[in-house]
Amino acid sequence: MDSSVDRIAQPWGARTPYGRHDPWPARVDTYLEEGVAPDEVQRWVQTASILHSDGDAMDVAVVDGRMAGVRGRAEDRVNHGRLGPKDLFAWQANASPDRLTGPLVRREGRLVECDWDTAMSRIVARSKELLDERGPGSIGFYTSGQLFLEEYYTLAVSARAGIGTNHLDGNTRLCTSTAAEALKETFGCDGQPGCYDDIDHADVIALFGHNIAETQPVQWMRVLDRLAGGDPPRLLCVDPRPTRAARRAAVHLAPRLGTNVALLNALLHEIIRTDRVDHDFTAAHTVGFEELAARVEKCTPAWAAGICDVPAARIGEAAELLGTADRLLSTVLQGVYQSHQATAAAVQINNLHLVRGMLGRPGAGVLQMNGQPTAQNTRECGANGDLPGFRNWQNDSHVADLARVWNVDPKTIPHYAPPTHAMQMFRYAEQGSIRMLWISGTNPAVSLPELSRIRSILGQDRLFVVVQDLFLTETAQLADVVLPAATWGEKTGTFTNADRTVHLSDKAVPPPGEAKPDLDIFLDYAARMDFRDKDGGPLITWHDPESAFEAWKRCSAGRPCDYTGLTYGRLRAGSGIQWPCNEQAPDGTERLYTDGISWAHPDVCESYGKDLMTGAAQEAVEYRSLNPGGKAVLKAADYLPPHELPDERYPFQLTTGRTLYHFHTRTKTARAPQLNAAAPDVWVEASVADAAALGLGEGDVVEVGTPRGALRGRLRITDIRPGLLFVPFHYGYWDTGAGHAPGGDTPGRAANETTVTDWDPASKQPLFKTAAAALRLVERGDGTGAPAPTTTASAPAAASGAGAVPATTGGRSALVTQSADPTWDSPRKESR
Ligand SMILES: Nc1nc2c(c(=O)[nH]1)N[C@H]1C(S)=C(S)[C@@H](COP(=O)(O)OP(=O)(O)OC[C@H]3O[C@@H](n4cnc5c(=O)[nH]c(N)nc54)[C@H](O)[C@@H]3O)O[C@H]1N2
Ligand SMILES: Nc1nc2c(c(=O)[nH]1)N[C@H]1C(S)=C(S)[C@@H](COP(=O)(O)OP(=O)(O)OC[C@H]3O[C@@H](n4cnc5c(=O)[nH]c(N)nc54)[C@H](O)[C@@H]3O)O[C@H]1N2
Ligand SMILES: [Mo]
């Protein structure tokens, strides 16, 4: 039966309830632009969503050579046909009239149009000059979690073995570096242990700092469908905001910002005290239990209650839920990762699973989530601070093996120090040792902390900045050369979601003007730079997406992220397949560690671990003596208070994050009318009690100030934790006209005007989620209310007297067809 639903007003659509251990029924969501009937679609082209890490599989409708809509893929393991609001509407941005259609170079201070040869010659000339004068360390590359695998791999080989620089990282540093680090600390290696099917089997689902309803809306549909079915799971939600998941939780803990480690240590304390420990599992598969037990011994719920400002009894209830779970699934995201003890906290969640033996079985899994759609590939291809294929930069035989794959001398591959992380790269650019920074697929002039500093770094004359993007973003406006990129739908490639599912994304339509796929740009650069292997042959031996994929397969062979069993043909004939996929696992691998811990052995591990307090890398000998047999490491950590605490001048805690309808700096979602209208401008969330104390009302224009800067937006009064402010970080200044210009006297609206240059010692992920801030009235509201959605964590509090705030709806243009497909059968046999 088909139904038509306004998917702005009802973001998660209709329910298809199912019972525990049953397969999740399919529901196919289709959106076609007004005036296009389904039978007018000439081609459906296979892809998956690129607006979060879920990998919702879909087909793009093509009519007369242009995109006209999207449809979920029922047969795909990830989404069983469903799409979220961004999946449904954001593709419209591709055809935006303000796409970059040709390269730009800066002449006499202004960006002017030029041809590709002029732009590339300028980049190559600068690269060669710098290599001659200052060596490879003067060149840095800052890439993304939104390009394709083939592109990262090409960039990584070029940067590491072509240029020979250690300065290559992704915006994944801001996003999932803690996920990777936590997996390395515990399991010796990156690689998601669990998978989304675990939602079907779990009886307890715990969400740590993860606003799943808004940031992985399709997996939230899956949870909602289980909540509506037989034997529903119980939810634990740890989040200081009243998220949709918090409202459905059996236990909701809303801790003070930056206190996750204290809370988690108390949960571990209770589980050990009540002996909910799986002693057999712990003995067989872990090291470090005694140390962990000793470290959390004093961490009682009463102790944590004082730090987290959560009732001790609630912490006890949460521990009871975790301790009695038959199959526990936990997910972890930015509420944990973007804080001063990010890795220390994320690792405690791994510890919870290990001491309870909740790993490697259906429903018992941990998801150290990714955020961006292709962040996994940035990591595995080594376009972040790691070597490709999860190789260990401290292990000479791993470096030698990589050198063999690339046919270069091992000395060519920098491994004298850990690869430079993004925050350090910007510091080097600030100090002048990095003189060229090539930025692809990311908008740091909005997304990095302390924007006034970032603008001044990127604006320096001595720094040569290349920006490769779809639009003339805030960052592109500061560039010396701007390269117009083709994007999703206009180029072919693969990418891997947060549960290791690899999807193929085929080209559906041509890119606008002279825009080129990122792969072609990187290949062109490598050819012009004439990068060579050790025998004088070309370093880059591939020429298109499929040959790049084949080259990557050779690099991944025998490593945890083994792609050797995958081909474009197989992906095109089916749908998503999970790595490792090889001879032993030809259909892919649902879960890691079903048979014990496999990649922590000193000879194979990606990392020997770090000191969680200082970030100092452990040496091989230390790791060997700690973990000779390659078990999982239970790493304990003491709680440390956040670096910046409220005081008289800055009495609030400030956190920043996302809303359902927008993606990051909104280069795509602001250009999709349905999404833009649902949340058109920035807002500030405060609690009922704080608003009353300051005499503030819904819709008042307020200013949020920190020692770094200030922003202005309208106030939304919600059920957020008292003492806490929330600001979405999506809003830069490009489309706002006067009043929001950066710098100058008028505060902007970007959250990162206020955030701090500071990071987790182990993962180097910046702290977007804890600052101290002041709040003041600028101007009374005009009665229209804040431009914040009512369907999300930003819903007005009933007690705020904001009954007048109009509900968020999309109207006719947001109608989406939902069909329960009667011909659909479970795509795979569901395991039990
Ligand atoms: N709609 C939408 N979806 C997205 C994205 C998007 O931009 N828009 N981006 C994608 C990307 S790249 C990412 S990384 C993910 C991020 O996905 P999430 O991590 O789910 O999103 P955030 O809003 O950054 O933060 C999640 C929650 O952390 C809570 N939090 C803040 N401080 C703390 C704390 O100290 N402790 C705890 N326990 N919680 C805290 C916040 O209240 C917030 O609800 O989303 C992905 N999906
Ligand atoms: N205050 C605060 N700041 C944050 C966060 C937070 O929670 N709070 N979250 C952080 C996180 S988790 C993330 S992931 C970052 C995201 O921060 P950014 O990566 O800066 O955000 P995006 O808007 O996704 O930028 C991607 C850019 O790539 C372009 N692009 C899209 N597709 C392509 C393509 O195919 N090729 C090329 N060349 N370009 C393309 C887009 O137009 C856009 O300009 O923000 C971080 N910053
Ligand atoms: Mo992210």
Task: Characterize the structure shown.
By secondary structure, the chain is α/β, with parallel strands linked by helices. 28% of the residues lie in helices and 17% in strands. The protein contains 26 helices and 29 strands. The strands form six sheets. It has a seven-stranded mixed beta sheet with strand order 7-6-18-17-16-8-9, with helices on both faces. Helix 4 (177-187) packs across helix 15 (342-355) and helix 12 crosses helix 13. The radius of gyration is 25 Å and the shape is globular. It binds ligand MGD (2 copies) and molybdenum atom. The site of one ligand MGD has 37 residues, from helix 19, strand 17 and strand 23.
What is the secondary structure topology, with strand pairs?
Layout: E1 2-6, E2 28-32, E3 43-48, E4 57-63, E5 66-72, H1 85-89, E6 104-107, E7 110-113, H2 116-134, E8 139-143, H3 149-163, E9 168-170, H4 177-187, H5 198-201, E10 204-208, H6 212-215, H7 217-227, E11 234-238, H8 244-248, E12 251-253, H9 260-273, H10 279-285, E13 286-287, H11 289-296, H12 301-308, H13 312-324, E14 328-332, H14 334-337, H15 342-355, E15 365-368, H16 375-380, H17 396-406, H18 422-431, E16 436-440, H19 444-447, H20 451-458, E17 464-469, E18 481-484, E19 493-496, E20 501-505, H21 518-529, H22 545-556, H23 568-573, E21 577-578, H24 620-626, E22 632-633, E23 652-657, H25 673-678, E24 683-687, H26 688-694, E25 701-705, E26 710-718, E27 724-728, E28 771-779, E29 815-819
Helix pairs in contact: 2-21, 3-21, 3-22, 4-15, 9-12, 9-13, 9-15, 12-13
The structure holds ligand MGD (2 copies) and molybdenum atom.
One ligand MGD is lined by residues 52, 86, 175, 208-211, 214-215, 238-241, 243, 255, 257-258, 260, 333-335, 339, 371-372, 655, 657-658, 660, 662-664, 769, 793.
Biased composition (Low complexity): 785-811
Pfam family, one: Molydop_binding
Protein name: Nitrate reductase
